[in-house]
Amino acid sequence: MARTSKRGQEPEPQEKRPLSAKLAHVLDIPTDTIGNVSHIEIAGNSRVLIEGCKGILEYETDHIRISTGKMMVKFTGRNLNLCCMNCDNAEIEGFFTSIEFSL
What we know:
The protein is 13% helix and 47% strand. By secondary structure, it is mainly beta. A six-stranded antiparallel beta sheet has the order 1-2-6-5-4-3, with no helix packed on it.
């Protein structure tokens, strides 16, 4: 049974959080280090590292679309090149003009 606030109306916010968020709070680590969350690191407008990459959906020199499981990320630019990829990570280089996220 969920605890209620002093007013007796709603469960306390901590009770609504997923188990992974509660565990991250107890361990004092970032929430996205636990669970199935992608991490995208952008270095200027010329290099991107995607951790949690599930696959390449489109690959052209002017755009690359990647699946991260729960969402898709589209990188648009010039001379884009998938320079490195393994089972979970991908690295793209080129001149990026936009990055789009979609579900």
